[in-house]
Amino acid sequence: MTSTARAAQDADSGQATTGTDPDQNGSRRGRWAVAFRRHRTDLAIGLFFLLLAGWLTAGMWPDPGARVLSLNPEDQALYEWFLAVDSRVLHGDFALLSDRLNAPTGVNLMANTTVIALGMLFAPITLVAGAPATFALLVAGNLAGTAIAWYLLFTRMLGVRRLAAALGAGLCGFGPGMLSQSNSHLHMTAQWLVPVLVWLVVRLVRAADPQGRPDRPGVDRRRVVTSAVGLAATVSVQVFIGEEVLFLTAVAMIILSLAYAAANRSLARRVLPGFLAGMLLAVALAGAVLAYPLWFQFAGPQSVPNGMFSPYYFYADLASWPAISPLSIAGSAGAAQLTTGAAEYNTFLGWPLLLATVVAAGWLIRRPIVIACVAAGLGMAALSLGPTVVVNREPTDLSGPYALLLGVPVVDGALPMRFALALLPLIATVLVLAVDRGLAADRTQVRILVPVAAALALLPIFPTQMATAARPPVPEFITAGHWRDCVEPGGVLVPVPLPTPKEPWPMRWAAAADASFSLPEGFFIGPYAAGGKASMGTYKQPTSQLLTDVTTSGAVPAVSAEQREQAQRDVRFWKASCVVLSDDAVHAESLRITLEALFGPSTRIADAWTWRVG
């Protein structure tokens, strides 16, 4: 007898005994109790993923504002600024061109990885607890959320056993590439909508199959339409979270779908008309929603015509695949030389997992889904190698498939090495199916050996805690609101030295003030390279360069009348109201003397010197 039946009997008994209407609250509690008993294993696995994410990011707690991810602090400053700007939606600011950086020109938010949807969703937390708290929550939440989403997909769509699903979901959410990208790349780790996209595509395929419902033959038009609408909505949201993840998902799904169709041609022929109709509807709906944002991204103010990063630099070294990430328990620091930095250990799967995947795929190779996963995995792995195959940092004479994408607009802007991120769910799917088959075997040895072998293959890449360090506090001049004595909300404040891509620290001032004032220059992608091509940041004004030189050398220059006149022109160009030098600036005394030579006597406010210039 099921627990549901027992609950129903208990309710009937109570009604007969009392002779009154059933207690609605008690009935609700009963349903919750039944649901809890039915899903307690799922809840326990979800809780484990949350605790694991919390443990991995423990260095950021309990005071995120005082801690920083030490392997990529520059990008953390950038994303905290993004989150602060995104939170301005609660103030009615929906502009895709932000005037809060690169004053007076602004920054195209769509051309940058601004995680707009996440920033808007977490805006209340940002305004109450600050951007660092939101950042820390998202770092942990993206890891756990991605794992939970894949676990639900594996159990609900594939119908596998929970142990198998948990192992695969753990790889999807906490694999080497995910942990590596968690070092400040929020747009790459927010992958919890990817399983939703996969589920909607599968749902569309099943609805388009005329033989999908034995009781009612024919295409399920209602489910085709609802699946298409769901796809359009999910794609639209993902664009405002991370377009690169959406692009990688689309490429992997195309390869996987073609391979599955080749392996199951009868199904492909049956579903093709209805599936294409649903996809056309999804594209039309998403196109209507995204037409203006995408136009703004590629043709609007401050848009860029090309990708920012060279594929000849961001490639996957072939030797990195059997290596183990330095961020894993079995990793070594020496493996770091095989990639560009700690945020790009995307291919470091380790030889035990690769070997287990090959064995599992060979065992299940007759299944169309396994054939499709193998084809998609090989395709994405090949694309990750970049235009030229490199082995142990030595270029070869072999061209990678990515060379075919060179010169293709938009597409060639994708970083080759990140194609490897798609292998986590593809490998996980093969392992999940293998472990599930092993658990269903008649022989006890197989039921034990297969899951143990999978766990041992995953053990070497189990993640270590993320490296963090203390960071200097934001000046009291900002945190106590003294900046309002110097610049009106929405005005331009010039921090000294000005923020740059390599030294973006003054952007934390703006983030701490909820982006209530604007900054000149800064860390962003804009059209400032030769010919209007993409650049990281903008060119410096002469006064900004002078102050940077003082910061670097500590030497006080002899300021000429021409430089004083140039300083006035520069602050007028920035439309600045106030120049601010905090006590903790490098070579603060040299900078103060230089600024007084440029702008005259300073005014001391809290822990900063200020100059009213507008």
UniProtKB/TrEMBL annotation:
This is Glycosyl transferase. It comes from the Bacteria. Keywords: Membrane, Transmembrane, Transmembrane helix. Signal peptide: none annotated. Residues 1-27 have a biased composition (Polar residues). The chain crosses the membrane at residues 43-61, 109-129, 135-153, 185-202, 223-241, 247-263, 275-295, 348-365, 370-391, 415-434, 446-463. Residues 1-28 are annotated as: Disordered. It comes from Plantactinospora solaniradicis.
